[in-house]
Amino acid sequence: MRRYNFIKKLCTFAAIYKTLYKTKMATNRTFTMIKPDGVENGHTGAILDKINSAGFRIVAMKKTQMTKNDAETFYAVHNERPFFGELVAFMTRGPIVAAILEKENAVEDFRTLIGATNPADAAEGTIRKLYATSMGENAVHGSDSNENAEIEGNFHFSGREKF
Ligand code: RTP
Ligand code: MG
Hints:
The protein is of the alpha+beta class and 163 residues long. Helix content is 50%, strand content 15%.
C-alpha cells in the first residue's frame, strides 16, 4: 500500500512538472516566416543574422512554399479584410523561410525586432524598416501571442522537426 502511494505521488509530481515545463517552453517561443519578398530580394541571410544577433535560438527552420489553402488557413483571422486576396496571392507566390524561435519573452521581443506592419512606421534598425518595401510586402511575419506562436509553429512543423 505504501509503495502504491509512493508511485501515485511520483506520477502526480511528474504530471505537474510536465505541465510547468510545457508552459515555460510555450512562453519562450515565437514563430516567424521570411515572406516571399524577403526571400526574392536576397535578404534571407541578413534577416537570419539579425535574428541570431538579437539572441533568438532556432528551434526549427525550413524553406518551403505555401499553397493557397495553407495561406488562407494561416491568415484566416483576416479573411474578411479587403486585403485578404492580395495577402494570399503574395504569400503563395514564392518560397518562404519558416522558423520557430526561442528566447525569454520571445513573442514581444520579436515583434520589437521586426517593427511596425507598415515599414514607413517601423523604428530605425528594425527588420521591416531595413527590408520591407510596403505595408503588404513587409519581409517577415511574427506571431502576436504565445497561443498563436504555438498554433503557427505546429502548422508548419511536426514534433520531430523541432530541436
Ligand atoms: P504578420 O501577421 O504577417 O506578422 O503582420 P502583422 O501582425 O504586423 O499585421 P497583420 O495586421 O496581422 O496583417 C497581416 C499581413 O497582412 C498584410 N497586410 N496588408 N494592404 C494592407 O492594408 C495590409 N494590411 C495588412 C501584411 O503583409 C501584414 O503583415
Ligand atoms: Mg499578424
